[in-house]
């Protein structure tokens, strides 16, 4: 009997200890009045503008920071935000004047130094910022970040780029290596955001509670659950927010977010789940509260030009012409994608002429077969992709079309993870076409061409090397105006059509939905709810 | 008894080191650079990869890395995720929620499961018995994501009785439906286990003796029969709590519960080694303690079981 008592006395505190921790904890914000909740994913990196290139952190930072320029919510045309004027005569030296009266959320003013220091910090190699390459056009970038392709370069000789000069509190000057007309358009990207002095004093504290200059300021965060921002009353921008704040709610499953949206538990979903797209189910679920809009995102099959089998451009053109893009976008993707007509997402870029790929992106099985016979191509074809993002269906659809239209064997070669896939790129290990997705960072044609198809560009996994194309890109970059640049980028695209280093497939559309509480919801080119203009119904 | 408990607690140390080392080695030895895919569709700058590699000691041999990590864990610091968030914070946020969910699930399993088991185990064949057998078979054969999704859509979206997702506070009330979903399979197993165990012991000598002594039926069942029959059920429920904590991935995913299951699942996908090892360490501890608790409960239920 005594023994049994003892057991009970030992067991009881153990049980209490285990269960006591079940109480308490939790905490966090209730989506109260004036707060708009949106579905979101957990940021992958610490929240610093120059270290965030993925959407999980990018969307939060975009609401918290306003750069020199911003993009119009309807036309995506860039306009000056913090900048009063950006003047240049040669597209090489830019004289930037700031508007007075802009402040950071901690009350300190936004000055020339806020930009120059932030950009130098972002570009400086040893700081290890993931967006450094955005600063490569600025003169002196090579001195602060000589890292080179695999980081084997010499250490930087200086901490500041020679191309940045502070004139006074509100004026500074940027000198580029070579003329580049698209430069002002780039300046709206979050990597170019200004940073307050407090960042340099304690970067760790900043990561926990970022301080921006945008329409919304930091409120609270529970990792893996939500990030809350509230309206910044002293916001100096064009559109003062009409809502009191944003709750970025992190969801594991898109499907759950959608259920929450339908039952009024969530205000905005930036991507509708496949089950809602089937038979346009979302149109019955949400009535008028949804939109499908082109965004800066496209997909292609890059072709390894180092593989002797694929060296004849005719082979690549034939493969492109054998794909019935319309059929795949409507059956596999339920019309959330549009067939591509070029390498640039023309619909989402103001003033850009579509159709850079010409006849080679049109479905023409006879011509395809003929080209393939001329090139004397023998299959089989393998199409490689990472399989952790669900790419099986469309790749098998393309394979099926290659078999039917060209009579060559084709198989899908899945690699388990995205990082293994990236490793294959690096090691030139592809033996057939492979998936390529690209998200533009700012609405300009250059973002789709320069970083992908120039010789040695960071995402040129095909190892495409065409002096003619580089030359055409240089001409376009140096064009005196945006319109002329667009014409010249189209010229560069035509060279791609001739060489076909990659096969454009389709451009993504943002299919979004919002709740009954929202009024005047619009979607930005990067698939966000436009927080600056959206209102709540009273 | 005290020595037994002490011995069991000392056993924790090798098990703890063994499991954490295996997990650590498996996670960090996975092929592919864990940092390569972290910059969207473009490759990460070399300086970034170098900095992260340095931060997580990836240039050292695995064994050195592990002991550096172990030293850190012993001071109570579980390290940081790649996004710079302390794993301690993540676990502190998620653990209470999962524990609450597991307790709700376990309560369903224990109350309804044992109840149904006693009901059919005592009565024997008949309508109730058939009903329990068929409905438990049904519950066992339905995958959790089907039950979860159906209840979510029917009760949440269609009828509006519950919200389709659980808020970040995850109150007890919100966890009832997810807890039911999570506990449904174990509930069915518990019912069957109780039923079988009761039926077997009903014919045991000691029960016959108790009845022959002229004891009240209530006492025969409550004190003599149930106490012995519940030993396998307690074993099952004890280990099930550990399984529920680690295995709630699907339920947590459907109802968007910010618990351990989803956390560890995502951490494995994104190769967040520090998070995975930290959580698994805690799960191992839960298992070990629950097993100890179950073993000690045996002695309470059946005095013949002694540990000295």
UniProtKB/TrEMBL annotation, chain A:
<dbReference type="InterPro" id="IPR000914">
    <property type="entry name" value="SBP_5_dom"/>
</dbReference>
<feature type="domain" description="Solute-binding protein family 5">
    <location>
        <begin position="77"/>
        <end position="458"/>
    </location>
</feature>
<dbReference type="Pfam" id="PF00496">
    <property type="entry name" value="SBP_bac_5"/>
</dbReference>
<keyword id="KW-0732">Signal</keyword>
<feature type="signal peptide">
    <location>
        <begin position="1"/>
        <end position="22"/>
    </location>
</feature>
<protein>
    <submittedName>
        <fullName>Oligopeptide transport system substrate-binding protein</fullName>
    </submittedName>
</protein>
<dbReference type="InterPro" id="IPR039424">
    <property type="entry name" value="SBP_5"/>
</dbReference>
<dbReference type="InterPro" id="IPR030678">
    <property type="entry name" value="Peptide/Ni-bd"/>
</dbReference>
UniProtKB/TrEMBL annotation, chain B:
<feature type="transmembrane region" description="Helical">
    <location>
        <begin position="131"/>
        <end position="155"/>
    </location>
</feature>
<feature type="transmembrane region" description="Helical">
    <location>
        <begin position="12"/>
        <end position="30"/>
    </location>
</feature>
<feature type="transmembrane region" description="Helical">
    <location>
        <begin position="233"/>
        <end position="255"/>
    </location>
</feature>
<dbReference type="Pfam" id="PF00528">
    <property type="entry name" value="BPD_transp_1"/>
</dbReference>
<dbReference type="InterPro" id="IPR045621">
    <property type="entry name" value="BPD_transp_1_N"/>
</dbReference>
<dbReference type="GO" id="GO:0005886">
    <property type="term" value="C:plasma membrane"/>
</dbReference>
<keyword id="KW-0812">Transmembrane</keyword>
<feature type="transmembrane region" description="Helical">
    <location>
        <begin position="175"/>
        <end position="193"/>
    </location>
</feature>
<comment type="similarity">
    <text>Belongs to the binding-protein-dependent transport system permease family.</text>
</comment>
<dbReference type="Pfam" id="PF19300">
    <property type="entry name" value="BPD_transp_1_N"/>
</dbReference>
<keyword id="KW-1003">Cell membrane</keyword>
<protein>
    <submittedName>
        <fullName>Oligopeptide transport system permease protein</fullName>
    </submittedName>
</protein>
<dbReference type="InterPro" id="IPR035906">
    <property type="entry name" value="MetI-like_sf"/>
</dbReference>
<keyword id="KW-1133">Transmembrane helix</keyword>
<keyword id="KW-0472">Membrane</keyword>
<dbReference type="GO" id="GO:0055085">
    <property type="term" value="P:transmembrane transport"/>
</dbReference>
<keyword id="KW-0813">Transport</keyword>
<dbReference type="InterPro" id="IPR000515">
    <property type="entry name" value="MetI-like"/>
</dbReference>
<feature type="transmembrane region" description="Helical">
    <location>
        <begin position="97"/>
        <end position="119"/>
    </location>
</feature>
<feature type="transmembrane region" description="Helical">
    <location>
        <begin position="275"/>
        <end position="301"/>
    </location>
</feature>
<feature type="domain" description="ABC transmembrane type-1">
    <location>
        <begin position="95"/>
        <end position="298"/>
    </location>
</feature>
